[in-house]
Amino acid sequence: ETGVTQSPTHLIKTRGQQVTLRCSSQSGHNTVSWYQQALGQGPQFIFQYYREEENGRGNFPPRFSGLQFPNYSSELNVNALELDDSALYLCASSVTGFNEQFFGPGTRLTVL
Amino acid sequence: TQLLEQSPQFLSIQEGENLTVYCNSSSVFSSLQWYRQEPGEGPVLLVTVVTGGEVKKLKRLTFQFGDARKDSSLHITAAQPGDTGLYLCAGALPSSGNTGKLIFGQGTTLQVKP
User: Fold this and answer.
1) For the residues of A34-94, what is the DSSP string, one character each?
2) Interchain CB contacts (distance < 8 Å): A and B
3) Is the pLDDT at A53 greater than 70, yes or no?
4) B1 pLDDT tier (thresholds 50, 70, 90)
5) Looking at the partner chain, which of B6, B31, B105 has a beta carbon nearest the beta carbon of A99?
6) Which chain B positions have a beta carbon within 8 Å of A35's beta carbon?
7) pLDDT digits (tens, 9 = 90+) for A58-108
8) Alpha-carbon span B25 to B65, nearest angstrom
9) How far is CA B102 from the centre of its chain?
């Protein structure tokens, strides 16, 4: 059974740029959630994707957007990057209807 | 304001000591989970508790869900250096339905010294 994978591992961008992060869900899971974790804090829910549609969103602006593909993998896109977007971005997969989520190793984004 | 408050935020103990981490809220949760996270990695699920008053044991770790489903605790017996890490509690609110939106506490950093 393959776990959740994310790419890239690390990324450095400058303010105003755009970034795309990728996630492959665990085998058998059909739902992907994205979280932002600032240094020293717990993860904050960004949004969840199920059946290629957004299914719940946290308190993040529209410049945070996502996609889910037929194979259940997902992308997180962030436009007009700000310094405060520097964080660890975590992807978690699950089976819809169950709250147990399984996390990938994360992508460390640094915005300069 | 943090919906889930964890305490303590930092804990440094000697190998062999016992410890308890608390996760408290004024809100009722339909389920609560505990995760452990190591530096540079994603959180790893330890346990899920669903029923008020539920107690689950995982080797030296004991998890309890409060009767009112507003709080939880994690107790570690005879801590070992391998227990070092960030412990996170996360809850699902009934209003979240099946969105899978988890509310996380700010975490407890545990250091176990040999």
Assistant:
1) EEEE-TTS--EEEEEEETTEEEEE-S--TTEEEEE-TTS-EEEEE-S--GGG-EEEEEEEE
2) 76
3) yes
4) low
5) B31
6) 102, 104
7) 999 999 999 999 999 999 999 999 999 999 999 999 887 666 889 999 999
8) 12
9) 13
